[in-house]
């Protein structure tokens, strides 16, 4: 985990900060609504239980990832997926390799999601456990079973790590991550699988731009769905950042700590996304294709932000 003590010091500085209402306006020189077209968002079953109707929060048809949190009953995840389908959304459950003990369990998970919720897409990732529960230690190991293809899954997303991943590249760098992404890109080219890279949230656009171009230069043609942190109080954001191991781009929060005018305001991803949208406008072939929202400050707060900034472009396109 990167930057722990430093982040904890930041947390202490922000502990007494008070959130204020209001949404940060997007710069006038960027088309942020177009950049947010067909955004996706994430939720947990326990969060879904508190939502009366997702149609009050999100455009019908939005892709909603269902986080697979260790300790959550699988019944609850299937029920959440089924409910999202009934309300007109595209559920995309997580399949964390290191939490799935064997081929039979994976087959049952796929069958139940498909049979009870009409699921045809999934996010395949290694998962946060340090040791595998059984057969699978990576998303590649699950793909190689052929079970998703047998079930007729039309879309498989995989994880991306713009700031590196010490679990995969323990000595730093991105060599192992890049090798894995090349394998997945080759798999997509030789099959009918629709694939994309979905990243962890970040705060600094420049390293993201550099990383995205490096992915393309490595011959990895998969589109990138860039992860962003939804509106949140700084102490909440820092807590999640520590838990997720996000480190290098936290210099953004350090600068925020020194700006009294921003100290009391919740973080919003508006400036971060505007920088990416500006780069996309100047480079139309830029491989960031979609935005994925982590609602760290709550699903309702993230919904209000997307409504304010996506407008009619939040309505999902095909794919």
How would you sum up this structure in a few lines?
It contains 14 helices and 8 strands. By secondary structure, it is an alpha/beta fold.
Structural notes for this entry:
This protein is α/β, with parallel strands linked by helices. It has a single domain (about 5-315), classed as Alpha-Beta Barrel (TIM Barrel), CATH 3.20.20.220. It contains 14 helices and eight strands. The chain has helices at about 5-15, 30-35, 45-50, 75-85, 105-115, 140-145, 145-150, 175-190, 205-215, 235-245, 250-255, 260-265, 270-280, 300-310, and strands at about 40-45, 65, 90-95, 120-125, 155-160, 195-200, 225-230, 290-295. The chain has an eight-stranded parallel barrel, surrounded by five helices. Strand 2 (about 65), helix 4 (about 75-85) and strand 3 form a beta-alpha-beta unit. Helix 1 runs antiparallel to helix 10 (about 235-245), helix 4 (about 75-85) runs parallel beside helix 5 (about 105-115) and helix 9 (about 205-215) packs parallel to helix 13 (about 270-280). The model is unreliable at about 10-20 (pLDDT under 50).
């Amino acid at each position: 985990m990167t930057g722990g003590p430093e982040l904890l010091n930041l947390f202490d500085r922000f502990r007494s900060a008070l959130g204020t209402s209001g949404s940060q306006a997007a710069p006038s020189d960027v088309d942020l609504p177009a950049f947010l077209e067909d955004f996706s968002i994430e939720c947990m079953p326990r969060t879904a239980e508190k939502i009366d109707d997702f149609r009050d929060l999100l455009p019908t048809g939005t892709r909603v990832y269902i986080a697979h949190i260790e300790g959550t009953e699988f019944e609850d995840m299937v029920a959440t997926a089924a409910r999202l389908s009934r309300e007109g959304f595209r559920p995309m459950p997580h399949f964390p390799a290191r939490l799935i003990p064997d081929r039979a369990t994976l087959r049952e998970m796929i069958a139940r999601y498909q049979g009870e919720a009409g699921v045809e897409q999934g996010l395949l990732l290694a998962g946060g456990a340090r040791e595998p529960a059984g057969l699978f230690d990576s998303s590649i190991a699950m793909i190689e079973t052929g079970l998703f293809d047998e079930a007729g899954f039309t879309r498989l997303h995989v994880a991306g790590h713009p700031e590196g991943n010490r679990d995969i590249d323990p000595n730093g760098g991105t060599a192992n991550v890049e090798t894995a992404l090349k394998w997945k890109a080759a798999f997509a080219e030789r099959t009918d699988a629709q694939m994309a890279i979905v990243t962890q949230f970040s705060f600094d656009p420049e390293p993201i731009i550099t990383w995205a171009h490096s992915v393309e230069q490595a011959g990895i043609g998969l589109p990138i769905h860039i992860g962003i942190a939804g509106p949140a109080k700084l102490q909440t954001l820092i807590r999640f950042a520590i838990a997720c191991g996000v480190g290098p781009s936290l210099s953004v929060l350090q600068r925020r700590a020194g700006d009294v005018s921003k100290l009391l305001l919740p973080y919003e991803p508006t400036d971060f996304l505007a920088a990416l949208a500006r780069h996309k406008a100047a480079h139309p072939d830029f491989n960031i294709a979609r935005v994925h929202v982590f609602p760290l400050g709550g699903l309702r707060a993230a919904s209000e932000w997307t409504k304010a900034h996506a407008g009619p472009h939040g309505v999902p396109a095909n794919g």
